[in-house]
Design brief:
CATH topology of one domain: Immunoglobulin-like
CATH class of one domain: Mainly Beta
Low-confidence stretches: none
Oligomer: single chain
Strand order of the largest sheet: 1-2-7-8
CATH superfamily of one domain: Lamin Tail domain
Number of strands: 10
Mean pLDDT: 76
Helix content: 10-25%
Distance between the termini: 189 Å
Order of helices and strands: HHEEEEEEEEEE
Radius of gyration: 79 Å
CATH architecture of one domain: Sandwich
Number of helices: 2
Length: 208
């Protein structure tokens, strides 16, 4: 210690600074030691609580799971659609209606039955039809025009289903049928003029 004092007295200024620094460091060290000793004594005497060291938890590294491989779907090749053939419609058969066989009309009356079926005043003729199933002899039969009271004597025969035209005027003598050989018209076109048919017994058969 005496040596240190002499060195302080005789030393230069820089020596004193170094010694001062050394002294401060030593004082700090001694203070720390002293504080540690005092702390231990006080804890041993029960004045200060004893320090219990708490273990620190050590972090255990977590295991990282390996990445799961994902499967990638491979696109499937779609086969091209096969065109289907559309059936061509065939000709539709059209049903044909076969004509029914026509029957020959049968006379509606048993025996001869002559009636007046038409009076054509413009062309001056009368149509007589036998609707019976037997022929009719017209001898003695008379066709009368009521307006002018002209009468025409008939002749010949009319078969079943046959129509006979009776022409009034001489100019129509060449037409098919019978001709009454009148010089002019006998049927009145502007007024009612009935045609009346009489049989050989002078009985009225029909009128129109």
């Amino acid at each position: 210690m005496e040596t240190l004092r002499n060195l302080w007295k005789t030393g230069s200024r820089s020596t004193r600074i170094v010694m001062g620094i050394i002294g401060v460091v030593m004082a700090c060290c001694c203070g720390v030691v002293g504080i540690g000793a005092a702390d231990s004594s006080m804890r041993a005497a029960g004045i200060l609580p004893t320090l219990t060291l708490t273990p620190t938890a050590t972090l255990i590294p977590t295991q990282t799971s390996a990445p799961t491989a994902t499967s990638t779907l491979i696109p499937t090749t779609v086969p091209p659609a096969t065109p289907t053939s559309v059936p061509i419609p065939t000709d539709t058969a059209v049903a044909t209606i076969a004509p029914l066989p026509t029957e020959t009309p049968q006379p509606a009356h048993d025996g001869p039955f002559v009636v007046i079926t038409r009076v054509n005043k413009r062309d001056e003729y009368v149509s007589l039809t036998n609707e019976g199933n037997q022929a009719q002899d017209l001898s003695g039969w008379v066709l009368l025009s009521t307006k002018g009271d002209q009468s025409c004597s008939l002749q010949g025969e009319i078969a079943p289903g046959q129509t006979l035209r009776v022409w009034a005027m001489e100019e129509d003598a060449g037409e098919e049928g019978l001709c009454c050989h009148f010089d002019g018209p006998i049927w009145n076109n502007d007024d009612i003029d009935l045609a009346i048919l009489f049989n050989a017994e002078e009985q009225e058969v029909d009128r129109k």
